[in-house]
Amino acid sequence: MTLDASTRIWRGREQIGLDELTAEGVWPATGKKSLDGMPVQLGITWCPDRVGLGATSKFNQFKVSDIWQDEASLRHASKLQTEVHKTFIRTRWMPAWVDHVEYGTAGRATLTLTLFGGMDESLYSEFKKGDQTMIAAADNTLKFSSAAYTPAQNAMRGPILEVKKSEGEPPLGSSGIQIRVETQLIIEGGRPGRVVRIWAQGWSEGFLPVEEYANVGDFDQRFPNPNVFPKY
Questions:
Q1: Is 157 within a domain?
Q2: One domain for residues 97 and 200
Q3: By residue range, what is the domain housing residue 147?
Q4: How far is CA 217 from CA 105, 137, 148, 210, 211, in A?
Q5: Is residue 44 scored above 70 in pLDDT?
Q6: Residue 143 lies in a domain
Q7: Rounded to 5 degrees, what angle do the CA atoms 114, 118, 123 make?
Q8: Residue 214 burial by CB count (10 A; 0-12/13-18/19+): exposed, middle or buried?
Q9: Is residue 178 part of a domain?
Q10: Of the residues 109, 145, 177, 196, which has the maximum number of CB atoms within 10 A of its CB?
Q11: Are residues 52 and 98 in the same domain?
Q12: What confidence score (pLDDT) does residue 220 get?
């Protein structure tokens, strides 16, 4: 693993640089220095190797993206990352898969969904019996299936009939939380075994970048597109 000037170093609630650590004598300006077993937490990411150019370069080594020096910095980073996570799910909706469909007449159906695991607990609590919800088709990458409109415009809509949590430890990847939703019109993406994304009241219904859809459609939808720039 390597680190360089782009590595973020956190101490308490502040970010510091290698030059500041060097000035304090914590990090050597040249040569080697023992850190006396200083405990730290490392965040790592892939980076290109330093040998080869163009097509021969490969992402085949780790780089240290972040160093957290103490418990205070870890708690602060955890809080910030959790808020980023919650905002992401509230704007992209909760991923789930369709367990079962009870088909009615004239396109009506009742869907039983299981929410994916690994999300912040506060997000699961926002799905409540009696609330209206929307369910949009997605694919196995969790991208929405279509970029023609917002997810809300192509979504199945209806009330939440039931929210229940299974007993015991859920399987890996599952939250163990099942939701039953009645919809007036089922779409192909709502069939059993399909991956969907489900909206909770108060979450975003707006546009997303076209790159976040499985079917990107016409790239002229992108905003801003090249047409906003004047031609000289």
A1: yes
A2: yes
A3: 89-204
A4: 32, 16, 6, 8, 10
A5: yes
A6: yes
A7: 75
A8: middle
A9: yes
A10: 196
A11: no
A12: 52
